[in-house]
Design brief:
By secondary structure, this protein is an alpha/beta fold. It folds into three domains: 6-53 and 134-205 and 317-393, FAD/NAD(P)-binding domain; 80-110 and 209-314, D-Amino Acid Oxidase, Chain A, domain 2 (2-Layer Sandwich), CATH 3.30.9; 398-462, no CATH class. It has 15 helices and 21 strands. The strands form four sheets. Strands 8-7-16-17-18-15-19 form a seven-stranded mixed beta sheet. It has a six-stranded mixed beta sheet with strand order 10-4-3-14-21-20, covered by helices on one side. The structure holds flavin-adenine dinucleotide.
């Protein structure tokens, strides 16, 4: 099928319009184009990737599902994640709970090349997660959509929708002169600031500060050998991805992160927006405080700042999710709050949701039925996947953390002190040592309340 747009009279017509060339949008566009549809991928940025932002890691399962030969397409990935876990910060200490190798190592039988074992010089991915730099990765993903036949229309902002008399969306209005584009299906992948989704009435309110985190991060350039030495990584085929809890967020609901790239380290944190406002904290100050922490500062010392940025992260999950479809429209990715903040899973949710939306668009065209009833297949598809299942499982997480702030400060600080005491209690009768450790705990949180916290965590978050 032709990839060029068609004009009917003065109208510019496509089969599908995708709004936003982020991860969800580029995937939706690729899948719809692969299904033989004429697809316009409209992006407000200078180029795809220009407006994207993440910390972060991307996950090979999602890439592989869209492009079984993704490894041969040379995605711009940095280091494989060979060490992952949690770091717990106290005011002046750090304890680590990380795993290296083991289950993080991808079995060689599933390494790339469409899942075939490869003994060639290109052995395929070695981990299920890779650190990636946002602009490069998003632009590579958009290039793949282009190769499938989607037409990328950059520097164009979608402002509103066009509706037929019955209300069904039949196209979008853009900020270009004579820039209206028509299609029976629009897939909205506009990211966290979901103004268009709100315009459609799929969600009844603007973003609430309590349901979004502000992510701030610095990308710091360092020589490869320095990164290897400081993070204990054998070489460039080894990388670290950790979530940081405790003193990083001054006890507020939030998580820090550290990711190692080839020649850069990404360090940042995300803290709920309402808490920043209530506590009169400026995100940059919080980030600086974290970067100056005695356990963090030496890791990035002497590095050159390559990039500083801030971006919202939708953390409302299931409870803040808009309706995912209406007549002629589907919504995917951050625009639909598809982020699992605890696991830093957003990129894979966006990609898998984009795929499901693209597939549903192809089905709808086959049936020539663009009604909400047909597009509800998109939601049904995601219900059977980790995307909606996990968001449902973690539906109480934000509320839980808001009411259990001790998980953010008391427990991480205790862990540091307890380990410190255990490994410095030389020449002390061990009965005394254990009593002191227990006292150090109960002085912060009575045991009965701690047991209650754990049970409450199990019930609210893990679905016990
Ligand atoms: C600090 C931080 C760290 C993160 N770390 C990780 C991580 O390690 N792992 C992970 O999986 N996830 C991580 N995430 C989450 C992840 O980045 C997002 O979930 C994911 O990028 C969402 O993709 P998306 O396509 O939905 O949205 P986006 O990537 O935001 O794309 C939206 C696109 O739509 C365009 N757009 C918006 N409005 C319009 C319009 N009106 N017209 C035209 N174009 C428009 C934008 O310019 C943008 O290109 C992190 C996020 C942050 C902020």
């Amino acid at each position: 099928m032709s990839n060029t747009r068609t004009r009917e009279g003065e109208k510019i017509c496509f089969d599908v319009i995708v709004v936003g060339a982020g991860l969800a949008g580029s995937t939706a566009a690729a899948i719809a184009a692969r299904g033989g549809l004429k697809v316009a991928l409209v992006e407000r940025g200078q180029n795809p990737g220009g407006k994207n932002f993440f910390g972060g890691a991307v996950y090979t399962h999602a890439l592989e599902e869209i492009y079984p030969d993704f490894w041969d397409r040379k995605p711009p990935l940095e280091r494989p994640v060979t060490e992952a876990g949690f770091w717990f910060l106290s005011q002046d200490g750090l304890s680590k709970m990380t795993v290296q190798g083991g289950k993080l190592k991808r079995p060689s039988s599933t390494n790339g090349n469409g899942g075939q074992t490869s003994a060639s010089a290109n052995p395929g991915p070695t981990s299920d997660a890779y650190v990636a730099l946002r602009a490069r990765f998003a632009s590579w993903l958009a290039e793949q959509a282009q190769k499938e036949g989607a037409l990328i229309i950059p520097k164009t902002t979608v402002l509103d929708f066009m509706h037929e008399p019955g209300g069904r969306v039949i196209g979008v209005k853009t900020d270009r002169p004579q820039g209206d584009i028509y299609a029976p299906i629009t897939i909205v992948c506009e990211g966290v600031n979901n103004l268009l989704t709100q315009k459609l009435g799929l969600i009844k309110h603007d973003l609430k500060p309590s349901t979004v985190a502000l992510g701030v991060k610095q990308l710091i350039s360092l020589p490869t050998e320095t990164i290897n030495a400081r993070f204990g990584l054998a070489d460039q085929n080894h990388g670290l991805a950790v979530s940081v809890m405790g003193d990083v967020s001054m006890g507020l609901t939030g998580l820090g992160f550290v990711y190692t790239g080839n020649e850069c380290v990404s360090v940042g944190l995300g803290v709920n927006l309402d808490l920043l406002a209530e506590n009169h904290l400026r995100p940059y100050d919080l980030l600086q405080r974290y970067l100056n922490h005695p356990a963090i500062a030496p890791l990035i010392a002497g590095g050159k700042l390559m990039e500083y940025g801030a971006h919202l992260i939708p953390e409302g999950g299931w409870r803040q999710m808009p309706r995912l479809f209406t007549d002629g429209v589907m919504v995917a990715g951050d625009a639909a709050t598809m982020v699992n903040a605890l696991h830093w899973e957003g990129t894979n949710m966006a990609i898998i949701a984009g795929k499901a939306a693209g597939e549903t668009a192809v089905q709808a065209h086959t049936m020539r039925d663009y009604s909400a009833a047909t597009l509800s297949l998109y939601r049904d598809n995601l219900k059977n996947r980790f995307v909606l299942q996990d968001l449902y499982q973690y539906r109480n997480l934000s509320n839980f953390l808001e009411h259990h702030p001790q998980f953010m400060d008391v427990y991480p600080a205790f862990l540091n002190d307890a380990l410190g005491m255990f490994f410095s209690g030389f020449g002390v009768p061990k009965k005394t040592l254990y009593r002191d450790i227990l006292r150090s705990f109960t002085s912060r949180r009575p045991l009965i309340q701690a047991v209650g916290d754990m049970v409450s965590f199990g019930k609210s978050v893990m679905g016990w």
